[in-house]
C-alpha cells in the first residue's frame, strides 16, 4: 500500500537547500491530508444517512493513507530519524503547513461538501500533474492518490449538484457555505516561496497550468447545481506558511492528546 | 381455515427442523417474522450505536496507523448495520420505521454501548472483549434459519475477525509497554469485564424467549452456554497478557471442564437496559441528532432525483 | 415520514472478470448514480468487486413460493436432459 522508500542516492542528488524546500513542501502535503482527514473522520457515526457515513469514512481513509506516504517521505528527506508519527503529532501549530480551508469546521453537511469540493477540485488536478514530477517518489504517491481523488471529486461534485438543485433549504445552506468558504479557495493555488522554488525546478507543477481546468470544472458543476459561482472576494491565506485560524489549535489538542500525555511510548 | 393455518405451521417447522433456509417470500408464522424483525433490527441498532463509543477516539488515536485501523473498523460497523437493516427490510420493515423505534426507545440495542470509553485501552477492550463476545453470538447466526439474516451474518463475521485481532493487538502492545500503559490496560479490563459478560443477556431461567427462538433456529445457543464459552476463552487470553480478570471467583473446574466464575450484577444489568446507564441518553441523543440534522440532506437528494427524472422524461417526450 | 426515505436498491457484484454478477444485498440511495457509488462504498471495501449492477428493488419481480411445486418439480423427472443419462462406450473418446 505504501510507496517504496527512495534510494538514498536519489535524495543526495538534491542540494541541502532544495532538500529543505522539498521537506517543507512534503510536510505541507501531509499536513493537508491529515487535517482534512481528521475533519472528515469527525463525521463518523453522525452522518445524514448510514450510506454516507461509509462514503465519508472512505474518503478520510484515503486521505490518511496519502498522509502517511507523505510523512514517511518527509521523514526521509529530513534524515534526522523522526518518524511519521513524530511529524504528525509532535509539532507546534505554527509548524503545520496545511492551507486554511481544510481546518475549517465541518459545520452542516453543506459546509463539509463545499470544503471537500473546493479541495477535491484542486487536489485532483494537482495530483494529475504531479504524476509527471521529476521527483520519482512524489510522482509515485501522486499516481496512487490521484485515482482516489478522482472518486472524491465525483462524490463532492454530485453533492454540490444535489444540494444546489434540491430543495429551497438545501440551496440556501449551500449558498451560505459557499459564502463562508469560498474565501479559502484562493490559497490552494497561490504559491508560497517554497512552492515557487520547487516549481522553478520542475519538481512540482505550476498551478497556472491547471487553473483553467479547475475553473471550468467549477463552472460546469455550479451550472448543473443552478447556483452562481461566487464573485471574486478577498482571499484569506497564511496556513501554508504556518499562520492558521483559531480552529487548528483545537484540532491539535485532540490529535496530539495521547502523544503529548504519554511521551515516547509505542502504541 | 384453522386447519390450513396449522398445516402451514407444521410444514414450516418441518422445514426449519430439516435445516432448510426460510426466504423472504416464503410463508412464515407472524410471530417468527416479528421476532426476527425485533432481533435483526436490535442487532442493526447495536452496530449503529456501537459506532459512537469507538468513533469518539478516532480523532485522538495515538498513531497514524492506529487511527486508520480504528476508522476502518468503525466504518465496518456502519457497513454491518447496513447489511442488517437490509436483511430486516426483506421482512417488510422499513429502515425509517426501525430508526423511529430506536429513537423513541421502543427498540433496544446492546447495553454494552451505554458504557463510556475513557482511555485508549478501551479501544483494546472493545475490540478484544466486546467484539470477542459479539463473535461468539454471531458465528452461530451464520446458520440461522432465515436466509437473508444468515447471509448478512456470514459477511459480518468475515469482516469482524479483524476487529477482535486489532483489539487484542492494542492490549498486547500496552501490556508489553511501559508500566503506565500496562496499568491503563488493567484499568480498562476492570471496567469492561462485567459489562461484557452481561452482553449475553439474562440467565437462561430469566430469558423467556430463548426456547421459542432455539426452536425456530433463530438462536442456536442459550445465553448461559455462550457466557460460559466466553469465560473459558478469555481467561487464558487475559493470563497471556499478564492481566487479571476482576473476579475473585474465577477458578478452573476440572469436572465441568470450564471455569467457575462469579455472579453478574443483574441489578446493574437491568438498570442499564432500562436506560439508566452512564451513556444511554448521550448515545440515543447523538443518533437522534444525526438523523434529524440529516433530514434536509435526504430530502434534497430525493427532490433532486425527482427533478432529474422529470427533466429526462420531458427530453424524451420532446424527442418523440 | 416514509416519503422522505430513499428508495431501496438491490446490489449485484461481479467479483472478478469472467464471473457473473451475484446478488450481495441492498441499500438506500436517492438515484441510480448514488446507488452505484454507495454500493462501491458499502460492498467493495475489501476488493470484492470489479463491476456493480444496481436495480431498484420495486422493479424486481420474483416467482411465488406457492408456485414452486408447479414451477420446479416438473424438472425432476427429465433426467434425459443430463449428459450422465446416456451411456457411451468406453472406446469412444471426445464426447
Please sum up the structure shown.
The complex is a heterotrimer of chains A (267), B (320) and C (95). Chain B contains eleven helices and two strands, in the order αααααααααββαα.
What gap, in angstroms, lies between the N and C termini of chain A?
21 Å
CATH topology of the domain at 8-63 in chain C: Ubiquitin-like (UB roll)
Q: What is the CATH class designation of the domain at 8-63 in chain C?
A: Alpha Beta
Beta-strand proportion of chain A = under 5%
CATH superfamily of chain A: Ferritin, core subunit, four-helix bundle
Protein model, in words:
- Chain A has one domain: Ferritin (Up-down Bundle), CATH 1.20.1260.10.
- Chain A is 65% helix and 0% strand.
- Chain A has helices spanning 8-12, 16-41, 50-78, 84-89, 100-103, 109-130, 136-164, 168-181, 193-200, 208-224, 247-255, 257-261.
- In chain A, helix 2 (16-41) packs across helix 9 (193-200), helix 6 (109-130) runs antiparallel to helix 7 (136-164) and helix 6 (109-130) crosses helix 8 (168-181).
- The longest helix of chain A is centred in the first third of the chain and has 29 residues, at 50-78.
- Chain A is globular, with a radius of gyration of 18 Å.
- The mean pLDDT of chain A is 95.
- Chain B has a two-stranded antiparallel sheet with strand order 1-2.
- Chain B has 320 residues and is an all-alpha fold.
- In chain B, helix 5 runs antiparallel to helix 9 (223-241).
- In chain B, strand 1 and strand 2 (258-260) form a beta hairpin.
- Chain B is built from 11 helices and 2 strands; from the N terminus they run H-H-H-H-H-H-H-H-H-E-E-H-H.
- Chain C has a domain at 8-63: Phenylacetic acid degradation B (Ubiquitin-like (UB roll)).
- The longest helix of chain C has 12 residues, at 32-43.
- A 3-stranded antiparallel β-sheet of chain C has the order 2-1-3, with helices on one face.
- Chain C has 95 residues and is α+β, with helices and mostly antiparallel strands.
- In chain C, strand 1 and strand 2 form a beta hairpin.
- Helix content of chain C is 18%, strand content 22%.
- Chain C is elongated.
- Chain C has helices at residues 32-43, 68-72; strands at 8-14, 21-28, 51-56.
- Classes of the chains: A mainly alpha (267), B mainly alpha (320), C alpha+beta (95).
- Chains in contact: A-B, A-C, B-C.
- The interface between A and B is large, with 49 and 47 residues.
Amino acid at each position: 500500500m505504501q510507496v517504496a522508500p527512495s534510494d538514498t542516492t536519489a535524495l543526495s542528488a538534491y542540494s541541502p537547500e532544495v532538500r529543505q524546500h522539498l521537506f517543507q513542501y512534503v510536510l505541507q502535503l501531509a499536513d493537508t491530508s491529515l487535517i482534512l482527514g481528521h475533519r472528515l473522520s469527525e463525521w463518523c457515526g453522525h452522518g445524514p444517512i448510514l450510506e454516507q457515513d461509509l462514503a465519508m469514512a472512505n474518503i478520510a481513509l484515503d486521505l490518511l493513507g496519502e498522509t502517511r506516504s507523505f510523512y514517511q517521505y518527509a521523514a526521509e528527506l529530513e534524515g534526522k530519524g523522526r518518524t511519521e508519527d513524530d511529524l504528525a503529532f509532535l509539532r507546534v501549530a505554527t509548524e503545520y503547513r496545511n492551507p486554511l480551508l481544510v481546518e475549517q469546521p465541518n459545520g452542516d453537511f453543506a459546509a463539509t461538501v463545499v470544503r471537500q469540493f473546493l479541495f477535491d477540485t484542486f487536489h485532483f488536478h494537482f495530483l494529475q500533474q504531479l504524476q509527471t514530477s521529476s521527483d520519482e517518489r512524489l510522482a509515485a504517491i501522486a499516481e496512487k492518490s490521484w485515482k482516489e481523488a478522482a472518486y472524491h471529486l465525483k462524490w463532492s461534485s454530485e453533492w454540490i449538484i444535489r444540494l444546489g438543485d434540491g430543495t429551497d433549504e438545501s440551496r440556501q445552506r449551500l449558498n451560505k457555505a459557499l459564502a463562508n468558504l469560498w474565501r479559502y479557495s484562493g490559497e490552494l493555488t497561490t504559491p508560497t516561496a517554497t512552492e515557487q522554488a520547487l516549481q522553478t525546478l520542475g519538481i512540482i507543477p505550476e498551478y497556472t497550468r491547471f487553473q483553467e481546468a479547475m475553473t471550468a470544472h467549477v463552472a460546469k458543476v455550479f451550472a448543473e447545481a443552478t447556483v452562481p459561482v461566487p464573485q471574486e472576494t478577498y482571499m484569506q491565506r497564511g496556513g501554508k506558511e504556518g499562520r492558521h485560524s483559531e480552529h487548528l489549535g483545537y484540532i491539535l489538542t485532540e490529535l496530539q492528546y495521547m502523544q503529548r500525555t504519554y511521551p515516547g511510548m509505542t502504541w | 381455515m384453522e386447519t390450513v393455518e396449522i398445516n402451514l405451521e407444521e410444514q414450516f417447522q418441518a422445514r426449519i427442523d430439516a435445516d432448510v433456509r426460510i426466504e423472504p417470500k416464503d410463508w412464515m408464522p407472524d410471530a417468527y417474522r416479528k421476532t426476527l424483525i425485533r432481533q435483526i433490527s436490535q442487532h442493526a441498532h447495536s452496530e449503529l450505536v456501537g459506532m459512537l463509543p469507538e468513533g469518539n477516539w478516532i480523532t485522538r488515536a495515538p498513531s497514524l496507523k492506529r487511527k486508520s485501523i480504528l476508522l476502518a473498523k468503525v466504518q465496518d460497523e456502519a457497513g454491518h448495520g447496513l447489511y442488517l437493516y437490509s436483511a430486516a427490510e426483506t421482512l417488510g420493515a422499513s429502515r425509517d420505521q426501525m430508526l423511529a423505534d430506536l429513537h423513541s426507545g421502543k427498540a433496544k440495542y446492546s447495553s454494552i454501548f451505554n458504557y463510556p470509553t475513557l482511555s485508549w485501552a478501551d479501544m483494546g477492550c472493545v475490540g478484544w472483549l466486546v467484539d470477542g463476545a459479539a463473535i461468539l453470538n454471531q458465528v452461530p447466526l451464520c446458520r440461522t434459519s432465515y436466509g437473508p439474516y444468515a447471509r448478512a451474518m456470514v459477511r459480518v463475521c468475515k469482516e469482524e475477525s479483524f476487529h477482535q485481532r486489532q483489539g487484542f493487538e492494542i492490549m498486547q502492545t500496552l501490556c508489553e509497554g511501559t508500566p503506565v500503559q500496562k496499568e491503563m490496560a488493567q484499568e480498562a479490563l476492570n471496567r469492561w469485564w462485567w459489562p461484557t459478560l452481561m452482553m449475553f443477556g439474562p440467565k437462561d431461567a430469566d430469558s423467556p424467549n430463548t426456547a421459542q427462538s432455539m426452536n425456530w433456529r433463530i438462536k442456536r445457543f442459550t445465553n448461559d452456554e455462550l457466557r460460559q464459552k466466553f469465560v473459558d476463552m478469555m481467561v487464558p487470553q487475559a493470563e497471556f497478557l499478564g492481566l487479571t480478570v476482576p473476579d475473585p471467583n474465577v477458578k478452573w473446574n476440572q469436572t465441568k471442564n470450564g471455569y467457575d466464575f462469579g455472579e453478574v450484577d443483574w441489578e446493574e444489568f437491568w438498570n442499564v437496559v432500562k436506560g439508566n446507564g452512564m451513556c444511554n441518553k448521550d448515545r440515543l441523543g447523538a443518533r437522534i441528532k444525526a438523523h434529524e440534522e440529516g433530514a434536509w440532506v435526504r430530502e434534497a437528494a430525493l427532490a433532486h432525483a425527482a427533478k432529474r427524472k422529470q427533466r429526462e422524461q420531458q427530453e424524451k417526450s420532446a424527442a418523440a | 415520514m416514509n416519503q422522505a426515505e430513499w428508495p431501496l436498491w438491490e446490489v449485484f457484484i461481479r467479483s472478478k472478470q469472467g464471473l457473473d454478477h451475484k446478488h450481495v444485498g441492498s441499500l438506500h440511495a436517492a438515484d441510480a448514480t448514488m446507488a452505484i457509488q454507495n454500493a462501491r462504498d458499502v460492498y467493495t471495501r475489501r476488493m470484492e468487486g470489479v463491476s456493480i449492477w444496481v436495480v431498484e428493488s420495486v422493479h424486481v419481480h420474483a416467482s411465488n413460493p406457492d408456485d414452486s411445486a408447479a414451477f420446479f418439480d416438473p424438472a425432476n423427472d427429465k433426467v434425459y436432459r443430463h449428459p450422465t443419462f446416456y451411456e457411451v462406450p468406453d472406446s469412444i473418446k471426445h464426447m
